[in-house]
Amino acid sequence: MPTYELAFLLKNMSKPDIAVSLKRAGQEIFLRGGFIRKLENLGVSKDTPYKISSHGQVHRTASYFALQFDAPPTTIDDLRDVYKRDVDIVRYKIFKVQEPEKAECTLHEEILPPAYRKDVQELLAESEKKKPKQWDAKTGLDYYPFQR
């Protein structure tokens, strides 16, 4: 099962009500065969960057949470539908977590001066390929003088 991250904003509520809303959001994942890896509280009653309209109300403050979970890919559309209808969730977004590429490096390569590193030499070779041609029609100028 792939790993997903659910970032969502809850409307401004008391702490027991926030706990109930978080439990309800987590149970939806469990009901669909997923499991939760991590829950992060990113701030309670923080100002939103702009006023947000949701379920007939205007919200200027919200509680920010991030939930990391594993679930089958077929259940993501169902989760989106459930979270869209939840009146306590102001905004939500589900992201697929990408595994970082594993880069192998050694200390010997890292302590070389930049001009001798293989990756820097590749970047320089690539930039040489992309250099624009210099214009020269026997004028000695490197630009076209009649272009605006």
UniProtKB/TrEMBL annotation:
One of its GO terms (cellular component) is mitochondrial small ribosomal subunit. Residues 126-148 are annotated as: Disordered. Pfam families: Ribosomal_S6. It comes from the Eukaryota. GO terms for biological process: translation. One of its GO terms (molecular function) is structural constituent of ribosome. Residues 126-136 have a biased composition (Basic and acidic residues). PANTHER family: MITOCHONDRIAL 28S RIBOSOMAL PROTEIN S6, SMALL RIBOSOMAL SUBUNIT PROTEIN BS6M. Belongs to the bacterial ribosomal protein bS6 family. This is Small ribosomal subunit protein bS6m. It comes from Cloeon dipterum.
